[in-house]
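Dear colleagues,

I hope this message finds you well. In preparation for our joint manuscript, I am sending the TATA box-binding protein-associated factor RNA polymerase I subunit A (Thamnophis sirtalis) sequence together with its predicted structure, so that both groups work from identical material. I would be grateful if you could confirm receipt.
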Amino acid sequence: MDNFVEELRQETRWLPTEETEDESVTNAVVPGIYLPLLPKHFNHPTNMAVKSSEFQKVKEDCLCCIQDALLQSQWQRAAELMISYLEILENTSSEKRVPSQEEIWRIGTEILQQHPRSNIDEINYFADRMKSLGVKRYLKISLEHAFHLLCSGFVDEAYQNLILTESWRYGEETVAQEKELKLVQAYKGLIDYYMWLKKKTDLLELDEDSCTQTSLQQEMQRLYQQAKVSLREIIRIPGVWDPFVICYVDLLEHYEEYEEAREVLSDYAYNSKFPSNPNAHVYYYQFLKRRRESRKAQISALQILHELVPSHELMLEFYNLLKKSKKRKKHKLQLKVIFAVLDFAVWKENVKAWSYLAKQTVEILQNSDKQFHWLKKEWDIRKHWWPAFHFSLYLAKRNWQENKKLTCEKVLIAGILLGKDCKYFKYVSKEGCKVQKKKFRQLKKFVKEHSWVGLRLADT
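The corresponding structure tokens are as follows:
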């Protein structure tokens, strides 16, 4: 930047001395651009003959300073810098004007939302001005304006803003922003749902013979119809629409439109046009569970969730559903599910998960060789990293000190999979014999009787 300033001054110094009156006016030294709180070299006399590219460079440096202020949460400094940066809108080049407006909208919104002394009137004024600068971003700016109003607790104002936005039309630009318009309608529907929910709560608090009950029910019905129309439109478009789907299904279930709710959730989960979304399968499973649908249908929904997110919190429910099945392949999947769950750190200290694995492992060993290859297959995938991940000496000491119930479940698995010489097993069984001698003697005996398991599992 210093080099740029020096070049600028040299250019001024070597200007011709003989010039016309017009040229004299053009090349006159005028007050410098003042950028508050910038380094001193920004404050210098600026010659009107300076090329626009050099002026643009100063502005880019100003933008960097604004970004720095934003990153450091210096909202007042950022606001002062923005005053200078607004001059960029005077650039007559449409190619440069559009991105500049975009930057001012995004940065200005962030400053106003975060500045401790900003108020809703200033935010409304800024949003209205930005909407008038360019129709190509009208709907996006209106949506963001509505979001801020909602976050600030101005629900009615946000709703009115969305109603006005929904009615906006501007020739071909309306068609170009059709998706944004659908989103505006969807958020209006979301507010309708919110108001419906409030009316529902009010209704539950009333006495059954209250005279206001009928009017509340009518108001709820009106809001339901409005929300239903708006929300239905957005969820037909391929995308991830979790908040809208949840609200829409809640409305349908309240009015006992179960078949439509099922169709919506099924389409959201299984339609190939929609992006892969684990939550879609969660919502569908929860609906099936509420409706007490068949175990087969519930397993089908959770099986896809298992493939997408094997560490999901619903996997223990999935495990129990599989356990109730009489089919052998479901029991095989059951073992795969519980092993997969314990692959993730979030489940490392889950007592229930280790308990399930320990119990099924014992059942497999007691079932002769019919299911042993299931265990071998799962262990082969993990034998090189599970010992350090789950069964180190450090973990043995920590688990024993912090959670003895967890340790008692893990030690059985360690002894069976890795043998009696496993550090985890040796430490825990030694410490356990000091406090529960009988229990740990039985454990050691069981592991010794099944010492062949470790040898067979070690075979490649």
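For the figure legend, we might mention the following. Confidence is low (pLDDT under 50) at residues 1-50. The beta strands are 29-30, 46-47.

With kind regards,
E.M.
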